[in-house]
Amino acid sequence: MRHLKAGEEISYTGKLYTARDQAHRRLVEAIHSGRKLPIDLKGGIIYYSGPTETPKGKIIGSCGPTTSSRMDGFTLPLLKLGLSAMIGKGNRSPDVIAAIRKYQAVYFVTYSGCGALLARQIKKKTLVAYLDLGPEAIYELEVKDFPLIVAVDSQGNSVYKQFKEKGLECPDQMEEIMIN
Amino acid sequence: MREIKVDKIRAAAADLAKEANFVLRKDVLGALKSALLKEGDQRSRKILKAIINNAEIAKKEKLAICQDTGLPVVFGEIGQEARVTGGSLAGAIHQGLALGYAQGSLRRSIVKDPLSRGGSGFSPAIIHTEIVPGDKIKLSLLPKGFGCENKSQIRMFKPTASLEEIKRFILETVAKAGPDACPPFVLGIGIGGTQDYAAYLAKKALLNKVKSQKSKVKNTNQKIYKLEKELLKEINNLNIGPMGLGGKTTCLGVNILSYPTHIAGLPVAVNISCHALRSAVKII
Questions:
Q1: Could you tell me which of B24, B27, B44 has the C-alpha nearest to residue B36?
Q2: CB within 10 Å: which end of chain A, N or C, has fewer?
Q3: Do A67 and B147 touch (CB under 8 A)?
């Protein structure tokens, strides 16, 4: 993961855990109260996603990324425990970007709003925890050739800043908003 | 009076849930395809192709276009000469949608209580109704995803505000939505009325066909038509691009609805839709 550069595109084959808002809240509460976590974060990858119900005869329903910034406030404790990568959509906070650099992790984005397309790359789904959360439960997914774009690399370089630094035009008054 | 049985309403709502979530609107798909023709950036082209491919897979496999199957928002036009029999109209819409969401294996995205959360399910929907002449009932369903709904905004301008101030607010709203809200966007804008009515118009404007830059379909109000065109151009110069990774295609279309307002105010609401702008219509 460490050699990947912001903007680079890769295909990932392996395991992921789905987790979004409420699962993050529970994981962080468990960490703070010293309880055992239902997943091993060390070297793990979290995919910010809550799939639809699974149609008959399918492995999973539509399963694309959700907005990552909502998980920003819960991300630092997970990175501290060894989370190696996150997959979602959109920008991250400066705190999270600094922590990604500190813990040598990576933040990826994948095709947003393309849950039907991405479902094809998911080969197995296993419920791990928090079934009561419905679409927000934690599932372990086995994916094959899952398309990823490095959005923040282990050096803390962000693809969102990068395209601006390339000199692409953006009205002055937007500059600050776009970077934040 | 024409009698309409609630069973018909329920069945129509169930069909709408599946159709809206499986089949991307023709005008949206068309706008994506014409954006692909104009887009020169290689990565943006790749993303646009993925979005178009996603829509084809969803339709073919009866899978949700996006896993966020939204909060179903219904716009009902109720003919004043129609009489609903056998139960409650609103109840039939809620039940029908929940049935359609279950049949279509869509997502349980709705929490019953906004503060205590938990226990997510398929309903209720939000229903707006309007009384119109005639004896038919027209139901339009807009399942609204929350990645983009979270970025929507409203501002109460002074009545003396310039068009430039209004445009700047709209551009800032789009820039703040940035990569988080799944660009390329479609913008629904409501101008006038009251605070709540402007927000309603902004959402309702998303039901209208996406007008691309070259479109021949013109808004009947010349000033609004001009504003739509200018905004579309300026938004596409922001260089946010598909997935916010840069490129010409930040916005597929701008739809504005306006309404008379009070001498003391000028409400402007911006409802952002992601590229997966979904809706379906049935006339009963």
A1: B44
A2: C
A3: yes
